[in-house]
Amino acid sequence: MKYDDVMKLALERGFYFPSCEVYSDAQAGFWEYGPAGVGLKNKFIELWRRELIRRDKMIEVDGSQIMSKSVFEASGHLASFADPIVRCTKCKSTYRADKIIVDATKTVIPESAGLDEFDKVITEKNVKCPKCNGDFGSTKKFNMMFQVGIGPEGEEAYLRPETCQSIFVDFPRLFKTMRGKLPLGIAQIGKSFRNEIAPRQSLLRLREFYQAEIEVFCNPARLNDLDKFSEIENTKIPIQVDNEVKIMTCKEAVDSKIIPNKFVAYYLGILIEFYEKAGIDIQKSRFRKLEEKEKAFYAEVAFDFEVETTTGWLELVACNYRADYDLSGHATKSKEKFEVMDNDEKVLPHVFELSMGIDRSLYTILEHSLREDKENDRTVLSLKPYLSPIHVGVLSLVKKDGLAEKTDEIYLKIKRKYDVFLDHSGAIGRRYRRLDEVGAPYAITIDHQTLQDDTVTLRMRDSMEQNRIKVSELDEILSKKTAFP
RNA sequence: GCGGUCAUAGUAUAGCCUGGUUAGUAUUCGGGGUUUCCAACCCUGUGACGCGGGUUCGAAUCCCGCUGACCGCACCA
């Protein structure tokens, strides 16, 4: 199924839709989750907690979205999270200053150079607009962070462009008060904000978006000293080497030095196990090792976890070895101590991060789960039962003869424990189809036989098969079928 | 941000060129009937011209601006 089909489903079934859509000044890059979307997102996050946080004994925090200017001076975002741009005075086209200079003169100016250096080269080498041969105005910086003004004086602060900065600045307190030991994973789910030049494709490039970030603090001298590596050493991961994807076990990847150490391999291993359980088709996924110039300004080694969708390959998780970039930056700027003890050794921990885009992940789950069942003339969203916004539909076959009342009675019994959708009206087939489209894995139907022997039919979404079960066993059966793995 | 295409009910569309209709159709949705398990059928109801300005006696329709969407370019920590 294609992007357009997912989009249509999202609009019609309440997964997501544009923010502020009744107003004409609504800006691009902002989307709301509807009821079905919230259900899916909450369950996805619960799976993330189970498969990554609890599995690895990580701890979780929830930081502010607005952070002070110093944080981003120390993190490098004020200087580096910005592009030098020039604009043609004639045709108004905008270009990256460093790119246009390289193209025209082969002169490489680092992105971080002063703006006057770009202007100087443009003037000296007489660089003109490639489209219309017009002159460029002076070079400007476009920073992708949203600035906010705090209090009546409008003190300078920023909406965070990534959630992890609060983890870094909170690290000294957390390590002390939570009795931390390296390696220690600290995680956070929350919103981040980036003033994208061209947001596009709904959930795939947003200006306000959810991240689930994990920062694992470690002793750089002990990256192969990891007992739990045995848990995933035989887990297969697809890894792209020299433009070719090879499937190998984590152990093979480490032995062949494609992945630098057991520590990194462990987290790539548990990450792919998580995504498989989330219902992403991992046959269509890869870890792509980034080349030098593709990496973020803070990353030493980086693997992107990417999946294939109908819009092309899509980056879901950036796995960056950030070394001590962040902690030393904050230590210098804040004059606080960020070193900790690891056994008898005092170390400034290094950081390996798994920076996950939740919105993109949810989109991919939808696209990989949506299918057209032509034989039965229906659209089915085959979500994992534990991720479905609705666990079970409760339907009366017909409204009369006391069936509606009996149906209500059963609904009341299970509605607190499960996400249940009660429906009395319309043809039964239509009601089943509707549930198929929001991904409800099960439906129970109350019919005349129910009144006689207290049994109901249980319908399976994917096969459309039905079993007769006792109402007294309903809770036990649903509990098993909708449980997290 | 640039260029191209486009914008009508929840969704998909007709009408626009050649200005005047009760803005049509399909599907969805609500109510009722029928039907004893897979989008059937019958009755009935709700629901739309993105926003702002201009031309005109009159604008969904023509013109301008804005906003958004899609595609390509550039960008993507």
Automatic annotation (TrEMBL):
<keyword id="KW-0436">Ligase</keyword>
<protein>
    <recommendedName>
        <fullName>glycine--tRNA ligase</fullName>
        <ecNumber>6.1.1.14</ecNumber>
    </recommendedName>
</protein>
<dbReference type="InterPro" id="IPR004154">
    <property type="entry name" value="Anticodon-bd"/>
</dbReference>
<dbReference type="GO" id="GO:0005524">
    <property type="term" value="F:ATP binding"/>
</dbReference>
<dbReference type="Pfam" id="PF00587">
    <property type="entry name" value="tRNA-synt_2b"/>
</dbReference>
<dbReference type="InterPro" id="IPR002314">
    <property type="entry name" value="aa-tRNA-synt_IIb"/>
</dbReference>
<keyword id="KW-0963">Cytoplasm</keyword>
<dbReference type="InterPro" id="IPR002315">
    <property type="entry name" value="tRNA-synt_gly"/>
</dbReference>
<dbReference type="InterPro" id="IPR036621">
    <property type="entry name" value="Anticodon-bd_dom_sf"/>
</dbReference>
<keyword id="KW-0067">ATP-binding</keyword>
<dbReference type="InterPro" id="IPR006195">
    <property type="entry name" value="aa-tRNA-synth_II"/>
</dbReference>
<dbReference type="Pfam" id="PF03129">
    <property type="entry name" value="HGTP_anticodon"/>
</dbReference>
<dbReference type="InterPro" id="IPR045864">
    <property type="entry name" value="aa-tRNA-synth_II/BPL/LPL"/>
</dbReference>
<keyword id="KW-0030">Aminoacyl-tRNA synthetase</keyword>
<keyword id="KW-0648">Protein biosynthesis</keyword>
<keyword id="KW-0547">Nucleotide-binding</keyword>
<dbReference type="GO" id="GO:0004820">
    <property type="term" value="F:glycine-tRNA ligase activity"/>
</dbReference>
<dbReference type="GO" id="GO:0005737">
    <property type="term" value="C:cytoplasm"/>
</dbReference>
<feature type="domain" description="Aminoacyl-transfer RNA synthetases class-II family profile">
    <location>
        <begin position="5"/>
        <end position="385"/>
    </location>
</feature>
<dbReference type="GO" id="GO:0006426">
    <property type="term" value="P:glycyl-tRNA aminoacylation"/>
</dbReference>
<dbReference type="InterPro" id="IPR027031">
    <property type="entry name" value="Gly-tRNA_synthase/POLG2"/>
</dbReference>
<dbReference type="GO" id="GO:0044281">
    <property type="term" value="P:small molecule metabolic process"/>
</dbReference>
